[in-house]
Amino acid sequence: MSRTVYRAPIALGVRGLGFGAVGLGACVVGATLIRAADVDGPLGVVLWVTLGILAAVALVFFGTGTARAAGLRSRLVLDEDGFLNATGPGAGVRRVAWRDVRKVQADGSVVSVDVAGSRQSLIRTSALDVDPRELARELRSRLNRNRGYTPLGSAQAERVDGVGR
């Protein structure tokens, strides 16, 4: 089995980077206007605090967008041993071996993988660039190959005691 990596689209990171840059630019313009108007007293405090909060939010968007555009984004890695689920917080079990997988099912935009020990791994496909049903089929196929199962009709019939092919 080969290694397959599903990632979030890079456009998502670039979009966050852009929103953050525009927000920081707007905060610089706002700070310049507040400073030029020479606002003092309670109104000045409210304006500066509001501007600080908006700048912090814009900085978070900018930082998150930069990290995602640089490659530190949500991903799902499928390999010979199992899979690594890094699609966000609350995903459950992050690293799962194929021998521990009990059931795979697609529920809307989430692929649920039941794991040994009554645990679960939730793969959020909305964070990835893949269809949930297609991913569930890929997971089932890898699980079957790992267990040695073959599709019906693909195995050669063996000759037993002169009977058969």
Automatic annotation (TrEMBL):
It comes from Phytoactinopolyspora halotolerans. It comes from the Bacteria. This is PH domain-containing protein. Keywords: Membrane, Transmembrane, Transmembrane helix. The chain crosses the membrane at residues 12-34, 46-65. PROSITE patterns: PROKAR_LIPOPROTEIN (PS51257).
